[in-house]
Amino acid sequence: MDAALRVCSSPVAPRCSAKPSPLDPSICQPTAVGLPCWKRPACGPLFTRRRCVAERSKEDPPVPALAETEDEKTQSDGDTEVSVSSTAVIDNREEEEEAEDTKEEEQLETRLTYNIVFVTAEAAPYSKTGGLGDVCGSLPISLASRGHRVMVVSPRYLNGDSDKNFAKAVDVGRRIKIPCFGGEQEVAFFHEYRAGVDWVFVDHFCYHRAGNPYGDRYGAFGDNQFRYTLLCYAACEAPLVLTLGGYMYGQNCLFLVNDWHASLVPVLLGAKYRPHGVYKDARSILVIHNLAHQGVEAATTYQNLGLPPEWYGALEWVFPPWARTHALDKGEAVNILKGAIVTADRIVTVSQGYSWEITTVEGGHGLNELLSSRKSVLNGITNGIDVDDWDPASDKYIPFHYSIDDLSGKAPCKAALQKELGLAIRPDCPLVGFIGRLDYQKGTDLIRLALPELLQDDIQFIMLGSGDPDTEDWMRSAESTYREKFRGWVGFNVPISHRITAGCDIFLMPSRFEPCGLNQLYAMRYGTVPVVHCTGGLRDTVENFHPFAKEDSGQGTGWTFFPLSKDSMLGALRFAIQTFREHRSSWEGLMKRGMSRDFTWDSAAAQYEQIFEWAFMDPPYVG
Ligand SMILES: Nc1ncnc2c1ncn2[C@@H]1O[C@H](COP(=O)(O)OP(=O)(O)O[C@H]2O[C@H](CO)[C@@H](O)[C@H](O)[C@H]2O)[C@@H](O)[C@H]1O
């Protein structure tokens, strides 16, 4: 086997830092055309593994005929005609199929593998306040199962309740000192190897406090910039100082930095490491889960970050005059997310729709022009979900199980939920659910506005969420106003979120904007029909119901409404309620089409791999 094949065909990345980086010229030794495949002129952004394999297979000797039997083999040395019996034709077909299979296997095996370092403020099941935790808890596992070596670096949050989540992570005994915020901060690393992934937790006393990762009942923590600066420095050091499973990750890795909390990483690579010859061949990809949060602080805090003064421009942010607080306010600030947008090698958002929206004035949260300027490296990949965790056939949190082939468990789940929440147990009454952070993004104000009118109908409504205190209070008071019909569960509760997803008939998501949205995916997997605002990832994932399509057998998985107004939301909900009541077979069709959708991470992970390849084909964006 030649060197190129030997290296590229490793199906599983060795847990070893000795594994050369995909950029290391030594791994793709001269191939047929004399250059490592990643350097060939043909390897433009659209060059794929498939072509790499196809080119290589041209050099392979032809597959010898395998199926010729004696009596069929009438070919002689002379001009004798060749007779091929029908069996041989069939055999040849089989051979072709076999060759095709082998080729496919080869394509799978020739996937490039990388040393990937996720940097994130949340990773389920260790920490989670929303979808970021879900994605960073499951995408790394999917990538590891595809042969990559994957580390996830996240804080070790201890608040009493959460301590048990980190019980299996052990102190690796390595301490580092981080120069920032006017001193040196010592952090430790804890490690757990689970599901093929190295989960690394950065330990510092600033992560040990009551509340959720970002704040408590008094609001966001005032030192979040400090806490996530520490995370970024620690994440940059982890591949260089931690020996995990016997080997380090080393310098030639790929950083996947998630949201603003991790956005200093690409800046640090450019400002602090590459000038000293470190991480010259590493790459960074910014994954934007939510552009609304950018890590903006006063300009004076720049000096705390430990960055050279000449890098100020990378984070510089000036608020427009209308957003300034007083006449002398110059609007000067630092914006951590902006730092990653201008320094990361590539940018990914969590759906295609959102990747376009953020380049518009309406969806860009002030960063649209900057993002537009990086359109050539901006892609959208729709999130997958953890289909083991969220599986109505085996979900440990729900009292009855069901599947697309046997829906009989769904009605008892609904009855159990009604009973648990003290609502009348009525199979015929449409049960509508909402789960989410109580935030401007999620459109809870619209629910608040529409509820009195909606509850005039014979329906039941359940809300689960925490966040904005005013909305929390409203949920409590609405529960006493509409005792028979409404339940508002204030808090963050994973088991009840599964039971609501399984027990409801309709799942409402009136999000103002939604980068991807996971709850509509969970709902569809559980045969709960989504009614969503037609935006971002919701538009990409929920297909509007057409009762008369496909020769009247129906098409679509839910309802999307537009514009975002009380009337259009109520209109869509009423269609859904009417279909639930009066058209049971259409309803079942809707449920089953949603349940049959492929929500696994496989397809998303393959798309991420394409982005990884592109990232390594170009030189580092910031040298
Ligand atoms: N009170 C509660 N109790 C229990 N569980 C609760 C809960 N409130 C929310 N959750 C859970 O948190 C997750 C929320 O996921 P989303 O993707 O809908 O939103 P989020 O806005 O946090 O994520 C951001 O990142 C994700 C991931 O990329 C994007 O899908 C999304 O559009 C973007 O806004 C779900 O698993 C949900 O069940």
TrEMBL record:
<dbReference type="InterPro" id="IPR013534">
    <property type="entry name" value="Starch_synth_cat_dom"/>
</dbReference>
<dbReference type="GO" id="GO:0009011">
    <property type="term" value="F:alpha-1,4-glucan glucosyltransferase (ADP-glucose donor) activity"/>
</dbReference>
<feature type="compositionally biased region" description="Acidic residues">
    <location>
        <begin position="93"/>
        <end position="107"/>
    </location>
</feature>
<dbReference type="GO" id="GO:0019252">
    <property type="term" value="P:starch biosynthetic process"/>
</dbReference>
<feature type="region of interest" description="Disordered">
    <location>
        <begin position="54"/>
        <end position="107"/>
    </location>
</feature>
<dbReference type="InterPro" id="IPR011835">
    <property type="entry name" value="GS/SS"/>
</dbReference>
<keyword id="KW-0808">Transferase</keyword>
<dbReference type="GO" id="GO:0009501">
    <property type="term" value="C:amyloplast"/>
</dbReference>
<keyword id="KW-0328">Glycosyltransferase</keyword>
<dbReference type="Pfam" id="PF08323">
    <property type="entry name" value="Glyco_transf_5"/>
</dbReference>
<comment type="similarity">
    <text>Belongs to the glycosyltransferase 1 family. Bacterial/plant glycogen synthase subfamily.</text>
</comment>
<keyword id="KW-0809">Transit peptide</keyword>
<keyword id="KW-0934">Plastid</keyword>
<dbReference type="GO" id="GO:0009507">
    <property type="term" value="C:chloroplast"/>
</dbReference>
<protein>
    <recommendedName>
        <fullName>starch synthase</fullName>
        <ecNumber>2.4.1.21</ecNumber>
    </recommendedName>
</protein>
<dbReference type="Pfam" id="PF13692">
    <property type="entry name" value="Glyco_trans_1_4"/>
</dbReference>
<feature type="domain" description="Starch synthase catalytic">
    <location>
        <begin position="115"/>
        <end position="372"/>
    </location>
</feature>
<keyword id="KW-0035">Amyloplast</keyword>
<keyword id="KW-0750">Starch biosynthesis</keyword>
<comment type="pathway">
    <text>Glycan biosynthesis; starch biosynthesis.</text>
</comment>
<keyword id="KW-0150">Chloroplast</keyword>
<dbReference type="GO" id="GO:0004373">
    <property type="term" value="F:alpha-1,4-glucan glucosyltransferase (UDP-glucose donor) activity"/>
</dbReference>
<dbReference type="GO" id="GO:0010021">
    <property type="term" value="P:amylopectin biosynthetic process"/>
</dbReference>
